[in-house]
Design goal:
Layout: H1 3-32, H2 38-52, H3 58-68, H4 76-82, H5 85-95, H6 103-125, H7 129-152, H8 166-183, H9 190-199, H10 207-229, H11 234-251, H12 255-258, H13 263-284, H14 292-298
Length: 300
């Protein structure tokens, strides 16, 4: 194992264990009292099943939450990240190292995405509800656009390189920092990573270990930001986690068998995501109800 690979594995384990230790005292009462719904488990299972097969999960979970009406729109980014870091960690352990991307590039991009997630979580946690609705609405439309380009086969020209040097290395690492921040608002990084790396001359398959490794680091980092502020739905996140772990385990043996035959499912996902995006943007234009505290401040 190279030094870069060792550092990457160490960072992966440390950030996920740290996030779990922070969350664990809050999980136990929820598990003990069964304060999570079967519906959240189903959403987590389906989304992470598809994520393991290469379709992604954040946009689907956001769409499902929006169509169902819970949790509140302002809590969706935090719930996404807190409820996804353990399934993502499991996926990283299952897939990490399966593709021979140059270790220094892989480690640099993964760690930079973690820093981006830390910055992004802090910003999103302080955003007003309407701002989150607007950003997530456009994030869903962007995700749908990437899914459509994937389905049409027009993402980026295929390269052959498994590593980058010089300015291409710098661009890739800097761009992954930005993608790490955007993950906090619900823009998945698989399709953007394919576009970025393809334009830089890398083989399309190189996007997968970079994406799954980045998720394994940036999602728990973002989750710790939301755990610090408490701006997420505890019960929904627990349900997502339990269903997500099972979905990842069930999908992993099937990757080589069915991952190339998901075009119909991908187009169905696009329709659902666009509908949810429109709904989210419409909600951003609605007048928010005035709370009792706000009424008292206005009329002391």
């Amino acid at each position: 194992m190279t030094t870069a690979s060792f550092i990457l594995y160490a960072v992966l384990v440390v950030v996920n264990v740290a996030a779990l230790l922070v969350w664990l005292p809050r999980i136990l009462p929820v598990l003990k009292e069964m304060k999570f719904s079967f519906g959240d488990g189903v959403i987590g299972f389906v989304a992470n099943f598809l994520d393991t097969l290469g379709i992604g999960s954040f946009a689907q979970i956001t769409a499902a939450f929006k169509l169902r009406g819970t949790p509140d729109d302002a809590l969706i980014p935090g719930t996404l990240n807190v409820g996804s870091f353990l399934p993502s960690f499991l996926g990283s352990l299952l897939f990490f190292g399966a593709v021979g991307v140059e270790p220094v590039l892989l480690a640099s991009m993964v760690i930079s995405s973690g820093f981006g997630a830390w910055v992004g979580a802090g910003l999103v946690s302080r955003m007003p509800r309407r701002g989150i609705q607007i950003f997530m609405g456009f994030a869903l439309l962007i995700a749908a656009g990437f899914f459509a380009m994937t389905g049409l086969g027009i993402l980026a020209p295929a390269g052959t390189a498994m590593g980058l040097t010089g300015w291409r290395f710098v661009v890739a690492v800097a761009a992954n920092f930005i993608l790490g921040g955007l993950m906090c608002i619900g823009i998945g990084n698989y399709a953007p990573s394919m576009v970025l790396l393809g334009l830089l001359g890398m083989h399309p398959i190189a996007a997968y270990p970079i994406m799954i490794g980045s998720d394994g680091v940036l999602i728990p980092v973002a989750a710790m930001g939301f755990l610090r502020t408490g701006r997420f739905s505890q019960s929904c996140a627990v349900g997502l986690t339990l269903g997500g772990l099972l979905g990842t385990l069930c999908a992993f043996p099937l990757v080589s068998l069915i991952s190339e035959h998901l075009s119909v499912m991908r187009w169905f996902v696009i329709v659902v995501i666009v509908f949810a995006a429109i709904s989210m943007l419409r909600s951003s234009g609605e007048v928010e109800p005035i709370s009792a505290d706000q009424k008292l401040e206005a009329h002391p």
